[in-house]
């Protein structure tokens, strides 16, 4: 019985570690996308807007088309980065919390959780 509990605890700990590693990787990727391509595309969009306003109709049309492509790229990158982190913890939150808290608070975790579901407010 003790061994079974210990194995269950170890599995829960490993699952929590895997989730933490995945989330850290996603945060790093989101940060890299934000600091690199999204910022570059945003700057290019501003330059294209300024150039489109100063050009002839033909050049202005091309600049407007390029600006639209940049804006679409920015929106797509933001959608990708927004989807990297889950909105809520995966699995049973009540079961996951002790393992997550142990990562930040040490080995001893006492937790009394009451969960009630209702419509979002």
User: Helix coverage percent of residues?
Assistant: over 70%
Q: Biggest β-sheet: count, sense, barrel?
A: none
For the CA atoms, what is the radius of gyration?
A: 24 Å
Tell the overall outline.
Answer: elongated
Structural class: mainly alpha
Note the total helix count: 3
Characteristics:
121 residues; mainly alpha; 0% strand
Short description:
The protein is 76% helix and 0% strand. The protein has helices at 2-54, 57-82, 93-105. α1 crosses α3 (93-105).
Your description of this structure?
The protein is mainly α and 121 residues long. It contains three helices and no strands. Helix 1 (2-54) packs antiparallel against helix 2 and helix 1 packs across helix 3 (93-105).
Secondary-structure map:
Elements: H1 2-54, H2 57-82, H3 93-105
Helix pairs in contact: 1-2, 1-3
């Amino acid at each position: 019985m003790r061994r079974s509990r210990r194995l269950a605890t170890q599995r829960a700990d490993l699952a929590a570690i895997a989730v933490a590693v995945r989330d850290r990787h996603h945060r790093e990727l989101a940060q890299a996308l934000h600091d690199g391509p999204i910022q570059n595309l945003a700057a290019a969009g501003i330059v294209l807007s300024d150039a489109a306003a100063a050009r002839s109709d033909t050049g202005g049309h091309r600049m407007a088309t390029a600006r639209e492509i940049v804006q679409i790229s920015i929106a797509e990158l933001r959608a990708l980065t927004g989807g990297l982190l889950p909105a809520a913890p995966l699995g049973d939150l009540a079961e996951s919390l002790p393992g997550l808290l142990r990562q930040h608070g040490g080995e001893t975790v006492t937790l009394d959780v009451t969960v009630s579901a209702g419509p979002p407010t």
